[in-house]
Amino acid sequence: PVTFLPRSSGACRGGARRPRAAPMAAAPSGDQAAILASQADLEQQLERALLAPHGSSMPGYGTKGVPSKHFFDWDLEDDRLCPQSEKHFPFLDLTRICCVWIVAIDHGNHAFGEWNPLFGQDWVLQYLFLVCGVCYGMSQKTLGAYLLRLGGYAVLGIFINWSAWLFTRKDWRHDFFGVIFHFWFVIGLMCYAVLLAPLRTYLSRVHDRSLAVQQQGPQREESGDHAGERPTPEAEHPPTAAEATEASDAPGDASPAPSGDVGCQGPAAKDEQREQRDALTRALVWIGGGVLGLMVLFTVVVHPLLDLTAPALLRLVQQFGTDTSFWGLPQTTEQSYQFLTRLCTYFMLTCTNFWLLIACPIVFKRDGLTGWALLLNTYGHRMLFFRANDERPFHGLDLMTIALTCYYLGLLHRRKLGKYIVRYWFVVLFVCGLLWPVGLHGRMDENPPTDISTRARINLLEFIFVTVWLTAGERLVQKEIFTEDRLDFLNEWSLIVFLVHKAVHILIAPPFNWIFLVGLIPVCYLRRNLP
């Protein structure tokens, strides 16, 4: 009755055990062979009848309920952010479109960002970095081609902003930092791509290794014996029917209980438990020792060395004009020393994330734990340690690292958690509404709270939104938005708005600036749909 279940323990998922094989009897007669064949046919028909109603919705099965060739790697597919079975991911496009439009609104009217409608401070820029991290992992371009494309967008956008400053007779020579403005985001992406290029190669190798290990499962099951193993004496000389009957009737020779039953643990089970405890201890020492060593390194060694560069840093910042204060860069010598002290904290978090990214796939059997380790380390650190407004570039790198890791290694139990997030979305919004401090006004990224209570609540809110997107992003967006409603032209519109919106706000007074930006929508629609 249970022999039609999947033979792989990873595919069972429910904990069903393979039935223990009975001692082999003598070769069946003709009538017995016919009966066994009919039973096998009945089992196959029963299996297909049970699986056919599920169709392709059941992982690993095709439209007719027949196991597919990817049956044994559906577990890995569940944890992945962008499964290989899909070719297009609409939630990435819609996330980018919404974030760009909210950024354009904030740059035209800062009151929206200060009052934080729709919790924009907790997800807009964060989602942009997450999308960029995922797209960087998906990109098949070389690093040079990737940087060339981003550099082209940056040059074009800076030229558009500079033209607006020149036309309105603003002093762009002494404030070129403000001319670049939001295109520092693109320049930052180029720097992140260079820094993460070796890690992307490493993550790709870890993913390929995990996929190869999982795909070895069905091959070893289909072969019947493990490669390199010799057959057991029972398999070489099977007992006769009489011997099997005598063995089963012998007193005191009852069949052993399954190893999972309580109270029936043998030496092998105890050895396995001891091995698991030792492995957990090694993992904690390996990971914790590396994190502690990096903290000591930045506190004792790096911090004193960076203090020597404070005067040179101040002279460099002054070359970019007064708008550098908006990003928290130092304006005096004393601020330079404080900035370098905070810089050690930012570097410490980023380096510990890199360490976790490298070490976790080595010490953990499930690669999906790596993404959770990075998330907990990042937001736990942000809750405990104060981070000023000059930390935004480092936070962007941390978010892009998390997204790149989750793209390659996935998140453990991602699909299961995402199912409940979508089912109880109203509870998530209710909790977020309770976490935001009542009456709080201002940009928390520009003026971060100094008290730990408010800081913890703000970062917990951001952690919730980031986790929701990483676990349930594709469930929140229907592909029919692009396939049936044909709104794919909004991708081009969002790119144009990202390039020109700041110049439009400078050149055109409200409300005509908004009319111009919205008027680009039908233009992009006609360009895409007209022959």
Describe this structure in words.
The chain is an all-alpha fold. Helices cover 66% and strands 0% of the residues. It is built from 22 helices and no strands. It has helices spanning 9-12, 30-51, 74-79, 90-108, 110-115, 124-138, 143-167, 176-180, 184-223, 233-236, 241-249, 267-307, 310-318, 333-363, 369-384, 392-409, 414-423, 425-435, 452-472, 480-483, 490-507, 512-529. The termini are far apart.
Topology:
Elements: H1 9-12, H2 30-51, H3 74-79, H4 90-108, H5 110-115, H6 124-138, H7 143-167, H8 176-180, H9 184-223, H10 233-236, H11 241-249, H12 267-307, H13 310-318, H14 333-363, H15 369-384, H16 392-409, H17 414-423, H18 425-435, H19 452-472, H20 480-483, H21 490-507, H22 512-529
Helix pairs in contact: 4-6, 4-21, 6-16, 7-9, 7-21, 9-14, 9-16, 12-14, 13-14, 14-15, 14-16, 15-16, 15-19, 17-19, 21-22
What's the rounded overall pLDDT mean? Answer: 81
Low-confidence sequence ranges: 1-25, 51-74, 220-237, 241-262
Chain oligomer state: single chain
Radius of gyration over C-alpha positions, nearest whole angstrom: 30 Å
Question: What is the string of SSEs from the N terminus onward?
Answer: HHHHHHHHHHHHHHHHHHHHHH
| Principal-axis shape | globular
> How many angstroms does the end-to-end distance come to?
61 Å
Largest sheet: none
Helix content bin? 55-70%
User: Which percent band covers the strand fraction?
Assistant: under 5%
Q: How many helices? A: 22
DSSP strand count: 0
Question: What keyword list fits this structure?
Answer:
disordered N terminus
Outline:
66% of the residues lie in helices and 0% in strands. By secondary structure, the chain is an all-alpha fold.
